[in-house]
Task: inverse folding
């Protein structure tokens, strides 16, 4: 394999409005001085989307039970920062890129608002709607929801998604309290802070209580598997909510684990039927399967586009949208199919016009490893500060195959294997487990396929599966002559490595090894330690 | 107490991964199969013509290269093993079988394979990775059996011509059981009020049974059992309290020694490389094939925290309570090797549940792979002994 | 009638313009986020006071 040299590309179109993004940061501040000026058209567009977000939030808070919910759960305070999250992800974006990001982000916001509404209604402490609670099946935060594709009248609800996962996206400090709670109970600080924080929410009595039953999964790691044990201790024994543990095989590329995986899917479905009284609906399953395939087709096309000189859907937006659409939605929400279509249209339009998202493209990078959750907009920063285009990230490199989506007797049997495959090859675990090929060898294949000239390797320091390949990544990159920038972080806990600490690793590499100057020097050092 | 006749012999076996008996067995024409996790059914690696060696890195010094490859966040066991492998310390192996049990051990072995750290000039050498069930039930059992066939029996037969028939497996189980029964009988002396064996001595014997070809240590174990029957204990028990040690991988006899030097008696060993349940005999019937029965017993009795179903999770704590009672423990020490994720969680849950639900005095500690003579650990164990003493006095009052 | 319509239109336009001016000012100067960031510390104190059954 030979790494191709990438010649800098300059955007023929001038970026309208602000270009010194660092000037918008307030020293020591939680929030920014003002919003970005993007030229008249794009600013008005952004403003209109902001109004839409405010409407979504206003509608949520208009219900008394939701207000009660807001004041009961500490993590709800993070939702004060929703508009700012969108500002972070749209930094520097104009035209189609701005619109694509809003399409993705705004839909995710609406979806999370619906989820919160569901939780507030069903929660024994707030809405206490018992009948409604009975149609909810609880799932983990990092769990493929394929087993719910055949239950049109049940709600697949993840308590951890809004309490931990989204909270950290909104506020980098969101999980510090819960991590501390878990550690006070004896959990060491060297485990992954994601399941640690989830365990902390449970220990701190801050998880809403509702649901007919729960399906836990061993995704994504040993910590996640064991963290579920902490949660089920309370859920099952105190709250009386039956729990099914769905083990997805770790060596998911092997043929000799697939029967086991499919059987576990069958059992999970039987468990849900038994505890909810609802029956599996094949028509609905295949309808969802069609949408899963459509999402896969779109993602494949976007990724193909990113292999060319004019990538369109990439970076943090691709990562966040893929995670939501692939894992949490999994064909169940038609709005996401509509969003896929809109995104495709916008991407094709921009591609035809050979549009670029930044003033210059200096490097094409594959972003690998587990991204820092408290700094997911780092990829936007990479582009704006150094002109590094994050072509794709590890979490977006998921299933590319179509699943059976027409109702035949054979396909009904195949469906269990498809659901098992989707679950086994869930985001992150499809790379961090399954043997070294999917993590190590595939990275360098992607470098070649995407004509990348750089690797940004997120090293989530307590992700043992990733750490375990550290030296081999380093050796292989050196052997092939690919510049590899390590970016250490502690996923949910910016107290260990701050956002500036994350940036500094890139800054020093770019200045010392690559001997380059930043595109936007105001972004190189930012005082955002206290920021949301 | 008078020293055990063969203690030094067994201690010597633990000084090197490639010990004298491994060399002797290989000279006898047997193949040495390395493994690193209790989830690999041991009798299957001890079929006629081969024997198992559970990997250790005794007398570990620097683990810098291991740390370069695995970072400082992986447990020191995996780093020490990789370091030793890169030094050529496991070149004696003829194959390596590992389950994707915990991520760290799996990555350690993958690094060994990619760095070609074993199997040099052994053209039939193989690396095998197994999927191990995470729940104990019929589906898990089917998986276990299939994995053992595909990743142990098949490569053994194909590469080394090992007889993997039911009869051969039963023979291996019989030999395995003989060792287990000997160690059980020896271990039962720990139940005495004034025990005639120390926790350290037992740990040495038990550990040797994992790292040396079993057929070569049978005679010494038999002699030790006979010796123990007449061994005179000290006039008064030498310890302040009896403790059950629970937790992750312990292959460092110094750790048990350190606990005992601090005034405790390790009356039972519920840890990986320990005897509970690792040295429980495997009971076979004639109705079902031996492989399925072995897998079934490994799966249902397994105390590994990666088993995620509620019954297994509760069972782990019940088992600790049961063993603590059976071995008349005064307290429980939950230990976890630093950076071990599964045991980090299990230690937290187990120590709280055993303390609050089962009312046991519990000490929860983490430790490095090689503990040496850590003053910190000594202080913690001593403080624990005192707290047990105080509780005893309060109870008497 | 025409006058009334014009007047109504004027009201709508004035109202719309006022709405735009106010909301755009809030939007552009990030006043929404400045307000919520000022509220957050009080909220966290509130959450600290909620009685909890904290245990494993």
Result:
């Amino acid at each position: 394999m030979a790494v191709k040299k990438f010649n800098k590309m300059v955007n023929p179109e001038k970026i309208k409005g602000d270009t010194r993004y660092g000037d918008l940061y307030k020293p020591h501040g939680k929030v920014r001085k003002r919003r970005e000026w993007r030229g008249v058209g794009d600013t008005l567009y952004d403003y209109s989307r902001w109004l839409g977000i405010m409407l979504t939030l206003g509608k949520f808070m208009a219900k008394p039970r939701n207000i009660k919910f807001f004041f009961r759960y500490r993590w709800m305070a993070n939702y004060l920062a929703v508009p700012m999250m969108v500002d972070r992800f749209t930094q520097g974006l104009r035209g189609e890129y701005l619109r694509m990001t809003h399409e993705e982000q705004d839909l995710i916001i609406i979806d999370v608002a619906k989820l919160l509404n569901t939780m507030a209604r069903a929660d024994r402490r707030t809405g206490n709607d018992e009948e409604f609670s009975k149609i909810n099946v609880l799932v983990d935060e990092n769990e493929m929801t394929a087993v719910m594709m055949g239950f049109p009248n049940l709600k697949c609800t993840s308590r951890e998604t809004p309490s931990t996962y989204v909270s950290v996206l909104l506020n980098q400090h969101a999980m510090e309290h819960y991590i501390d709670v878990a550690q006070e109970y004896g959990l060491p600080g060297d485990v992954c802070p994601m399941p640690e924080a989830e365990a902390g929410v449970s220990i701190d009595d801050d998880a809403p209580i509702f649901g007919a039953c729960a399906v836990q999964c061993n995704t994504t790691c040993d910590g996640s598997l064991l963290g579920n044990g902490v949660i089920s201790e309370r859920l099952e024994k105190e709250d009386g909510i039956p729990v099914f543990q769905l083990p997805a095989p770790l060596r998911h590329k092997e043929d000799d684990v697939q029967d086991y995986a499919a059987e576990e899917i069958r059992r999970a479905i039987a468990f849900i039927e038994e505890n909810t009284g609802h029956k599996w609906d094949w028509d609905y399953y295949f309808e969802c399967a069609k949408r899963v395939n459509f999402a896969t087709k779109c993602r494949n096309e976007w990724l193909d586009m990113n292999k060319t000189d004019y990538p369109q859907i990439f970076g943090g937006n691709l990562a966040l949208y893929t995670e939501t659409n692939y894992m949490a939605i999994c064909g169940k929400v038609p709005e996401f199919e509509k969003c896929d279509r809109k995104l495709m249209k916008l991407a094709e339009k921009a591609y035809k016009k050979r549009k670029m998202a930044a003033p210059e493209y200096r490097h094409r990078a594959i972003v690998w490893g587990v991204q820092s959750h408290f700094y997911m907009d780092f990829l936007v920063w990479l582009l704006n500060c150094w002109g590094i285009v994050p072509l794709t990230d590890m979490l977006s490199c998921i299933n590319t195959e179509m699943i059976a989506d027409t109702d035949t007797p054979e396909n009904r049997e195949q469906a269990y294997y498809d659901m098992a495959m989707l679950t086994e090859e869930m985001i992150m675990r499809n790379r961090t487990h399954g043997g070294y090929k999917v993590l190590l060898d595939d990275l360098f294949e992607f470098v070649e396929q995407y004509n990348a000239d750089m690797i940004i390797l997120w090293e989530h320091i307590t992700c043992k599966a990733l750490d375990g390949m550290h030296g081999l990544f380093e050796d292989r990159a050196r052997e092939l002559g690919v510049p590899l920038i390590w970016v250490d972080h502690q996923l949910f806990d910016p107290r260990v490595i701050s956002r500036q600490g994350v940036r500094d690793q890139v800054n020093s590499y770019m200045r010392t090894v690559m001997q380059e100057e930043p595109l936007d020097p105001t972004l190189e050092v930012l005082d955002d330690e206290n920021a949301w | 107490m008078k020293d055990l006749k063969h203690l030094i012999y067994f201690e010597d076996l633990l000084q090197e991964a490639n010990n004298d008996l491994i060399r002797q067995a290989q000279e006898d024409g047997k193949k040495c199969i390395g493994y690193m996790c209790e989830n690999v059914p041991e009798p299957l690696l001890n079929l006629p013509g081969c024997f198992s060696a559970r990997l250790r890195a005794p007398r570990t010094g620097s683990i810098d290269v291991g740390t370069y490859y695995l970072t400082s966040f992986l447990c020191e066991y995996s780093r020490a093993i990789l370091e030793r492998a890169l030094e050529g310390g496991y070149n004696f192996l003829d194959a390596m079988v590992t389950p994707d049990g915990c991520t760290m051990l799996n990555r350690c072995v993958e690094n060994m394979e990619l760095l070609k750290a074993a199997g040099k000039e052994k053209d039939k050498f193989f690396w095998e990775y197994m999927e191990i069930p995470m729940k104990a039930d019929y589906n898990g059992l089917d998986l276990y059996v299939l994995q053992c066939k595909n990743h142990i029996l098949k490569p053994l037969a194909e590469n080394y011509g090992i007889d993997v028939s039911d009869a051969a497996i039963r023979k291996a189980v019989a030999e395995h059981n003989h060792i287990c029964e000997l160690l059980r009988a020896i271990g039962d002396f720990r139940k005495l009020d004034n025990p005639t064996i120390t926790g350290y001595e037992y740990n040495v014997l038990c550990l040797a049974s994992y790292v040396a070809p079993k057929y070569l240590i049978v005679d010494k174990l038999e002699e030790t059992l006979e010796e123990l029957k007449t061994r005179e204990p000290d006039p008064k028990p030498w310890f302040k309290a009896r403790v059950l040690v629970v937790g992750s991988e312990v292959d460092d006899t110094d750790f048990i020694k350190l606990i005992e030097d601090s005034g405790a008696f390790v009356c039972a060993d519920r840890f990986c490389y320990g005897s509970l349940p690792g040295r429980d005999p495997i009971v076979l019937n004639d109705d079902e094939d031996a492989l399925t029965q072995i897998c079934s017993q490994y799966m249902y009795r397994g105390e590994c925290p990666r088993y995620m179903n509620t019954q297994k999770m509760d069972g782990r704590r019940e088992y600790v309570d049961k063993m603590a009672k059976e071995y008349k423990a005064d307290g429980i020490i939950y230990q976890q090797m630093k950076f071990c994720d599964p045991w980090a969680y299990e230690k937290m849950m187990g120590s709280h549940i055993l303390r609050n639900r089962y009312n046991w005095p519990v000490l929860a500690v983490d430790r490095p792979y090689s503990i040496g003579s850590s003053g910190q650990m000594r202080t913690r164990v001593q403080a624990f002994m005192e707290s047990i003493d105080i509780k005893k006095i309060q109870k008497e009052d | 009638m025409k006058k009334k319509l014009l007047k109504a239109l004027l009201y709508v336009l004035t109202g719309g313009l006022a709405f735009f001016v106010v909301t755009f000012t809030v939007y552009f100067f990030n006043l929404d986020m400045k307000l919520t960031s000022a509220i957050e510390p009080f909220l966290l104190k509130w959450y600290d006071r909620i009685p909890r059954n904290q245990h494993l």
